């Protein structure tokens, strides 16, 4: 049957030609030239397989291969080669990477839409649930780390006026207003394995849940945008 990882046959065995089922769909549905001409800045992350380092692609560099690399789960797809380097899903090193947004965006409000549950009410005990929770923790780790870094910088920045003058990034972090929308308990009821499922009913359910959570957040916090942050980064930094 060939090589396997945790009972999975590797994509190099079942798909030796490296044909990616999403390539034609992405080519058909996404106008990359229009995206580059647009006013919205887009950043996409991928993880270099050999070095484990995060690479952030800006809009001028984003193409089909970058999109495929950013969602390349190594148990499902072969690594995507860009500029001679193999890449896997960016979530392993930055999920998402917030620092480019803080560094380059003119807006001081940063809104994180989090789709991976941070916590679970109970510890998993079955093999599928344990693997699911391992994946959640792995993909949340980089986001938690970046939020803590931003929180630590916000703690020290008000006392470091000279440093803020010399380092514009620190000044932007000092003035940053962070916010977060997540799926709450409703999203937590879905197991991590649902990420590999795509029945129409599930997609519609997740779509509706996203709108509901966003609407509820706006009702509560719309007036805070541009005025104060609703995600206390400092408390995350010292938690």
Automatic annotation (TrEMBL):
Enumerate the Gene3D superfamilies for this protein: Cytosolic phospholipase A2 catalytic domain
Keyword tags: Lipid metabolism
Domain of life, per the record? Bacteria
KW Magnesium (keyword) present: no
Q: Does the keyword Lipid metabolism apply?
A: yes
A Pfam family of this chain: Patatin
Start and end residues of each PNPLA domain: 64-97
Return the protein name: PNPLA domain-containing protein
């Amino acid at each position: 049957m060939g090589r396997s990882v945790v009972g999975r046959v590797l994509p190099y065995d079942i798909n030796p030609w490296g044909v990616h089922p999403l390539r034609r769909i992405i080519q058909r549905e996404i106008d990359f030239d229009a995206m580059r001409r647009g006013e919205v800045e887009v950043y996409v992350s991928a993880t270099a397989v050999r070095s484990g380092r995060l690479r952030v692609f800006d809009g001028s560099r984003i193409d089909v291969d970058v999109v495929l690399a950013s969602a390349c789960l190594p148990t499902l797809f072969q690594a995507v080669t860009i500029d001679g380097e193999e890449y896997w899903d960016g979530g392993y090193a930055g999920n998402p990477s917030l620092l480019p947004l803080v560094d380059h965006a003119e807006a001081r409000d940063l809104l994180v839409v989090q789709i991976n549950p941070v916590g679970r009410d109970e510890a998993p005990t079955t093999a599928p649930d344990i693997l699911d929770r391992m994946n959640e923790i792995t993909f949340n780790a980089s986001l938690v780390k970046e939020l803590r870094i931003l929180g630590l910088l916000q703690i020290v920045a008000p006392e470091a006026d000279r440093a803020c003058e010399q380092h514009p990034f620190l000044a932007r972090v000092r003035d940053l207003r962070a916010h977060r929308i997540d799926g709450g308990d409703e999203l937590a009821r879905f197991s991590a394995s649902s990420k590999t499922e795509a029945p129409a009913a599930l997609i519609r359910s997740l779509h509706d849940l996203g709108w509901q959570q966003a609407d509820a957040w706006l009702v509560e916090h719309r007036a805070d945008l541009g005025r104060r942050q609703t995600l206390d980064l400092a408390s995350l930094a010292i938690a």
